[in-house]
Amino acid sequence: MKKITLLTFALFTLILSNEANAQCTDFSGGGPYTNFNSLFGGAPCDDGTGCPFNEISTFEAWADESYVMDNIVVGHTYTFSLCNGPGAGTWVPSFSIIAPSGAIDAFGLDVGSTCSLTWTATEAGTYTIGISEAGVPCDSSTNATTNNGFPAITCTNGDTCEACIVSAPDAVASAVLPADGATDVEIAYGEANNNLGPFEWLAATTGDPADDFNISFGTNPAADNIGGLSGFASGGSINFGWLPNTTYFWTIEAVNCAGLTPGPIWSFTTSACTDTAAPAGVSAPVPADAAPNVTLNADGNALLFNWTEGDPNATFTLNLGVTNPPTQPFVNFENGAPITGLAENTTYFWSVDAVNCFGTTAGTVWSFTTGIALSVEENQIETFSVYPNPTSAVLNIKTTKEIDNVTVFNLLGQSVATYSKSDLSNDSIDLSKLSNGLYLVRISAEGTTQTIRVTKE
Fold first, then answer.
1. By CB atoms within 10 Å of each CB, which of 56, 144, 174, 335 scores lowest?
2. Under a CB-based contact definition with an 8 Å cutoff, are residues 135 and 63 in contact?
3. Distance between CA atoms of residues 265 and 250, nearest Å
4. CA dihedral of residues 327, 362, 307, 453 (deg, nearest 10)
5. 45, 44, 24: which is closest to 152 by C-alpha?
6. Burial class (CB in 10 A: 0-12, 13-18, 19+), 40
7. What secondary structure, in 3-state letters, does the chain show?
8. Region 404-420: what's the mean pLDDT?
9. What angle do CA 35, 28, 213 make, to 5 degrees?
10. What does the alpha-carbon distance between residue 43 and residue 259 come to, in Å, rounded to a whole number?
11. What's the mean pLDDT when you consider all of the chain?
């Protein structure tokens, strides 16, 4: 089954419900697929001759997959269905209609139907339509590869298309990056896909403006034998299997409601691969291997990941998950960058693969176990205050309570200093031995705890 796919990955996405017949929000069987946008320009509307019935007839739907659809109009009524085509009715679907905000507009099936769901849009923009199997817990169908009819969308007659009062945009002016004919364009090598960019261009300053841009690229002078992306903004990068010492051609289409205007075709050539061996591996992980009770930053449940690089010219893929080996890759991950959305009191496995154009050196799998998320209380009546802040040495704590203990954390969530009641001198602590930077100071007194950001300079 051939589909046009533009996937967006997010680690540790919140799943609302996992019960049968629920509002499913996780669809790992495939997608979100963009074929409704690429074939029909998004959601249908009545152009005066009635609402079209837009059906994808080149493949059949499976369970636990999803589709995105642009140009949904608030207040318009739509019907999504799997009533026609090979396999229709093989299993009973259940649909989840997810608005741009993440709200569920509708789910299940129309009363008396076994293949369609009608809803009225509460928001405008891009919707996600998920397909589950009725009566089966979300994202657990055994029919994830079983054909069940053609995906289709229609609307209520009278949901008229918005009038277009402009002309098609003028073509883009010129390429900025990579410049036309550029050589030695660098590739950021990754384990699965390589990254190249940014792609930048100058939009036309004449004519009616473009609402959007499409990019197409290839190894042929027509720039069309690899593929393209719709809704691509100037300055973006592309993950693809870019090859060294290869000439690529690319072009930009300017798009508005009146149509699209092709632009000129440009070219660039990637750098040759000069590596003669795969890079050296990494070592000295932070969090340390088997580290217990690793504190998270409550601002997004974030944790910074660091390691010692064996080859400064390599790029890195960080793999993370709750199973060994970890299964979620973060390609072109920067040493010292954070990952958000981690769970408290959970054991994670992670590894770092070093990558260059010659090959990949797989990293050792390490583990750590998270503790609590260290919160910083703000916008509340202050129980404690500190001064001076920033400080170069002594930090004074102002409170009407008797302090029990003070703990200082760095931004990795690691405890770097602890002070008991007997360590305090006039409710003050000495930070002179700490390196300059931002710290979180957690103060506990008479059953009350508050964490305050403090800068050491």
1. 174
2. no
3. 6
4. -10
5. 44
6. middle
7. CCCCECCCCCCCCCCCCCCCCCCCCCCCCEEEECHHHHHHCCCCCECCCCCCCEECCCCCCCCCEEEEEEEECCCCEEEEECCCCCCCCCCCEEEEEECCCCCEEEEECCCCCCCEEEEECCCCEEEEEEEEECCCCCCCCCCCCCCCCCCEEEECCCCECCCCCCCCCCCCCEEEECCCCEEEECCECCCCCEEEEEEEEECCCCCCCCCEEEEEEECCCCCCCCEEECCCCCCEEEEECCCCCCEEEEEEEEEECCEEEEEEEEEEEECCCCCCCCCCCCEEEECCCCEEEEEEECCCCEEECEEECCCCCCEEEEEEECCCCCCEEECCCCCCCEECCCCCCCEEEEEEEEECCCCEECCCCEEEEEEEEECCCCCCCCCCEEECCCECCEEEEECCCCEEEEEEECCCCCEEEEEEHHHCCCCEEECCCCCCEEEEEEEEECCEEEEEEEEEC
8. 79
9. 35
10. 16
11. 86
Going by their DSSP bridges, the two strands 315-321 and 174-177 should be labelled as unpaired
Q: Quick check: 70 and 125 in contact, CB under 8 A?
A: yes
Residue that is written with structure tokens 């992980």 in the block: 285
Residue range 376-406, pLDDT digits in tens = 544 344 567 888 988 888 999 888 888 888 9
Cα distance between residue 386 and residue 200, in whole Å: 48
| Beta-bridge partner residues of 125 | 72
Q: What is the pTM of this model?
A: 0.52
Does the pLDDT value for residue 456 go beyond 70?
Answer: yes
Q: Taking Cα atoms as reference points, which of 395, 375, 373 lies closest to residue 385?
A: 395
Q: Which residues contact 49 (CB under 8 A, 6 or more apart)?
A: none
CA–CA separation, 65 and 95 (whole Å)? 10
Among the listed residues 182, 198, 196, 189, the one whose alpha carbon sits nearest the alpha carbon of residue 274: 189
**What are the tokens at 118?**
């009608």
Among left, alpha and beta (phi > 0; psi -120 to 50; other), residue 210 is beta
Which one, of 110, 96, 1, lies nearest residue 56 by Cα?
1
**Size of the chain, expressed as the number of residues it contains:** 457
Q: Domains in the chain and their CATH numbers? A: 30-155 (2.60.120), 174-270 (2.60.40.10), 283-374 (2.60.40.10), 385-456 (2.60.40.1930)
List the one residue out of 71, 307, 76 whose CA is nearest residue 319: 307
d(CA 75, CA 413): 47
Token pair for 97: 């209609």
Per-residue pLDDT tens for 294-332? 888 766 788 889 899 998 888 899 999 999 999 888 888
